[in-house]
């Protein structure tokens, strides 16, 4: 830690993190994908999620050292922090090279912690440039968040930093950075890769695990879950089918094509639309009863906010918690070791509304009540 009494917080924001999520692009890597996302009407969310994290630090003795404009300067100054701006941006928009250069420049500033907002692609850029001794923490803002370097939510990231500023002792652990091949995902294949490790302050209530490998030998249980859901489906009701293999089993039971890491729309046992964007879901379900079927991420417990940003806050508020249908095997729930499920939407108010106990279908006519954290 710095010898100064002022906590020196390095800040890096990937301004385009998560921009491809709401428009069903499975990620945000690459200028072409980012341009397409903007053309489809996507709105960047990284600034908003960084603001949630930093708001927890207002009133504390902290200096924010960051890069210009959207990479940190704008949001830090808007919240009234003492800000030191370093470096320069690449003309024509931020790049991976800007992130890597920012890491190297911030290390020279003797920062106490590097706080960054992004997804797994951003974490890859960070780990490629960060020295082993650097302590980092991620604000989840991307489409893909499989790495163990992120807090469970923006608010939780702020809580961890606040603990450090207040002098509380947190264990430092090296957590994996993993990323999936976006192009493979768009072709229906999940191909993950290990890119290294970063040193992270660990507070188990607020830090997410690396996504479980998903080695599930409970095919019969998943089939039972699928049979139960199909049996319960109502006529003239829209079913928003989330991503993942458990929901895929429901689509298989219906005999319908499935977007493994996308969101499909079903009505009367027929596929209405596949790989939907946030706008499509809002428009198509307007005025009609809608139920959202989701599975949880093994090892993490997220069911909203990881790979399904197509579920907008407007849609979630309209559907309400009562019409969220969660699917998970008991093995998957047991992997959480008592940790609650997590709703990490773009709305703190919505996260609060979704907190408390929720019903989870764990087999044929088998349901359990499981807690959802008020993050």
Tags for this entry?
375 residues, alpha/beta, Rossmann fold, seven-stranded mixed beta sheet, five-stranded parallel beta sheet, 13 helices
Strand composition percent: 15-25%
Count of discrete domains? 2
Terminal Cα separation, in Å?
A: 28 Å
Strand order of the largest sheet: 10-9-8-11-13-15-16
- What is the CATH C level class of the largest domain, in words? Alpha Beta
Which second-level CATH architecture of the largest domain applies? Answer: 3-Layer(aba) Sandwich
Tell the overall outline: elongated
* Rg for CA atoms: 20 Å
Count of extended strands:
16
* Average pLDDT metric: 86
Describe the sheet with the most strands. Answer: 7 strands, mixed
Instruction: State the helicity in percent bands.
Output: 25-40%
Q: Which fold name fills CATH's third level, the topology of the largest domain?
A: Rossmann fold
Order of helices and strands: EHHEHEHEHEHEHEHEHEEHEEHEHEHEE
Spans with pLDDT under 50 lasting ≥5 residues?
A: 22-28, 213-217
- In terms of structural class, how would the helical and strand content be classed? alpha/beta
């Amino acid at each position: 830690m710095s010898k100064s009494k002022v906590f020196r917080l390095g800040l890096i924001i990937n301004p385009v993190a998560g921009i491809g999520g709401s428009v069903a692009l499975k990620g945000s890597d690459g200028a072409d994908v980012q341009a397409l996302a903007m053309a489809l009407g996507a709105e960047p969310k990284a600034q908003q999620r960084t603001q949630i994290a930093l708001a927890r630090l207002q009133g504390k003795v902290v200096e924010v050292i960051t890069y210009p404009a959207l990479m940190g300067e704008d949001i830090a100054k808007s919240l009234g922090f003492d800000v030191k701006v370093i470096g320069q941006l690449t003309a024509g928009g931020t790049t991976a090279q800007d992130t890597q250069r920012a890491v190297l420049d911030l290390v020279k500033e003797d920062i106490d912690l590097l706080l960054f907002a992004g997804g797994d692609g951003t974490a890859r850029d960070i780990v490629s440039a960060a020295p082993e001794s650097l302590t980092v923490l991620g604000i989840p803002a991307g489409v893909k968040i499989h790495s163990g370097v992120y807090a469970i939510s923006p608010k939780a990231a702020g809580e961890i930093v606040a603990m450090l500023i207040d002098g509380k002792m947190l264990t430092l652990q090296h957590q994996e950075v993993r990323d999936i091949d976006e192009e493979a995902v768009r072709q229906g294949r999940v191909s993950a890769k290990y890119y290294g490790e970063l040193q992270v302050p660990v507070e188990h209530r607020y830090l997410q695990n690396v996504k479980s490998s998903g080695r599930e030998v409970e095919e019969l249980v998943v089939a039972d879950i699928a049979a139960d859901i199909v049996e319960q489906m109502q006529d003239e009701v829209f079913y928003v089918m989330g991503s993942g293999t458990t929901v895929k089993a429901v689509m298989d039971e219906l005999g319908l094509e499935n977007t493994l890491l996308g969101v499909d729309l079903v009505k009367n046992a027929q596929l209405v639309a596949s790989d939907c964007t946030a706008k499509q879901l809002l428009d198509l379900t307007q005025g009609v009863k809608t139920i959202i079927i989701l599975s949880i991420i093994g090892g993490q417990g997220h069911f909203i906010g990881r790979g399904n940003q197509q579920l907008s806050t407007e849609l979630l508020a309209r559907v309400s918690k009562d019409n969220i249908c969660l699917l998970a095997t008991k093995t998957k729930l047991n992997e959480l070791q008592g940790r609650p499920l997590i709703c990490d939407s773009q709305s703190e108010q919505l996260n609060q509304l979704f907190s408390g106990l929720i019903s989870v279908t764990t087999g044929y006519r088998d349901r359990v009540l499981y807690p959802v954290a008020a993050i």
